[in-house]
Design goal:
The complex is a heterodimer of chains A (110) and B (116). Chain A is an all-beta fold and 110 residues long. Chain B is built from no helices and 13 strands. The mean pLDDT of chain B is 92. The interface between A and B is medium-sized, with 23 and 28 residues.
């Protein structure tokens, strides 16, 4: 199956700092999504971004499909950004299967 | 409304019990999913329903039995579970992107299951 690697596995920031999370994947994909899971377990979809760049407030994401990676940028981080960030991909031949990476655990301290 | 609801929020059951998890969405999505998530691990796909038909079963043991009564509802029937089945069970829905492609997935808050 497709391999999805996220880095770093853990990240601790002070409030106001910026950060970049990375997702590498091993095969061609037709779907890539970024999710945030809060400490209570709720998964929120941040971006649907199989290619290109998108921005939503303090968050932005870029996927370079030809080089098989995606980046999630968080600017001016807030304590509410804490949680686990997952990248999930759907392989072109997998048919409706999202494969998740292991996630990046982000802690933002006040 | 981009909400997926799940009931119950928490469930404790014995290994001989039968229980059901319920998921509901009113976004008109035609694809619905069950995932299992163990602590500090990513979600793992269990089942996919597309247009109310089971399209993917990721070799899940038969003690888990999914059901899609209509396009808005998804159930997961549980019977004779094992303690290692304790996990967070997440439901999701999406527009069916066609040709086996999934669109943006929206997740419910999950049911935290403990099997004694």
């Amino acid at each position: 199956g497709i391999q999805v690697e996220q880095s770093p596995p853990d990240l601790i920031l002070q409030e106001g700092a910026n950060s970049t999370l990375r997702c590498n994947f091993s095969d061609s994909v037709n779907n890539l999504q970024w999710f945030h899971q809060n400490p209570w377990g709720q998964l929120i979809n941040l971006f649907y971004i199989p290619s290109g760049t998108k921005q939503n407030g303090r968050l932005s994401a870029t996927t370079v499909a030809t080089e098989r990676y995606s980046l999630l940028y968080i600017s001016s981080s807030q304590t509410t950004d804490s949680g686990v960030y997952f990248c999930a991909v759907e392989r072109e031949t997998s048919g409706s299967r999202l494969t998740f990476g292991e996630g990046t655990q982000l802690t933002v301290n006040p | 409304d981009t909400e997926v609801t799940q009931t119950p929020k928490h469930l404790v059951m014995g290994m001989t019990n039968k229980k059901s998890l319920k998921c509901e969405q009113h976004m008109g999505h035609r694809a619905m999913y069950w995932y299992k998530q163990k602590a500090k691990k990513p979600p793992e796909l269990m089942f996919v329903y597309s247009y109310e038909k089971l399209s993917i079963n990721e070799s899940v043991p038969s003690r888990f039995s999914p059901e899609c009564p209509n396009s808005s509802l998804l159930n997961l029937h549980l019977h004779a579970l094992q303690p290692e089945d304790s996990a967070l069970y997440l439901c999701a829905s999406s527009q069916d992107g066609g040709w086996g492609r999934t669109d943006t997935q929206y997740f419910g808050p999950g049911t935290r299951l403990t099997v004694l």
